[in-house]
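Appendix B, record 7
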Amino acid sequence: MKLSILMPVYNEEERVGNALKQALAVDYPCEIELVVVDDGSRDGTGEILGRVDDARLRVITHPRNAGKGAAIRTAVEAAEGDYMVILDADLEYDPQDIPKLLEPVLDGRATVVYGNRTFGSHSAYSFWYVMGNKAVTTAANVLFNSYIGDLETCFKLLPLSLYRSLDVKSRGFGMEAEVTGKLLRQRIRPYEVPISYRARGREEGKKITWKDGVEALWILGRERARRQGGRSTTASS
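Structure tokens (predicted):
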């Protein structure tokens, strides 16, 4: 099995070096590749990426910023792995958790695995950020009669071929809702494992806003309206 770790990057010169170092230092239980898409960064991100020498790393550059969804779409088209997972460059997620996501796949218990941020131990989260995340996740559970704990998690591990078949169109953060909505519409229920999470604040460069939450709700409603009956498919046993 080969895992493609996809990293969208936009103006992350302060963090991308550490993000790459951490991702490449993990002891993975399988072969990996790290596909980084520089989504039109205007700071020193490109120069930092150009200095990293590792055979597992591939860097693709967008001439202008197109959004997270578009960056992931580019990475997915270039990826060569059997499975994929997204790892943002903002250091909010710990790549040491990726082997935990792989465990239920490698032992045959699951096909799609989500890293569930429990929002437990922490210094301080924005109240509205956590409530917004819970509201979007609850909406998905109600619309699709499911029970997932964290729709907006970046850590979504699934077969590369399955992701490609979803044909995700959202160019921004709405891709998270679109991926989950399309999986649930196909009756694919993600297997969830707890992960660590360190949220950064707006002053540290966090880009998601309340508008992205509204868009996520709209996308979920759209995907629910498209729902058709069919044979149930499970992501875990």
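Remarks on this record: The CA atoms of residues 174 and 215 lie 6 Å apart. Confidence is low (pLDDT under 50) at residues 229-234.
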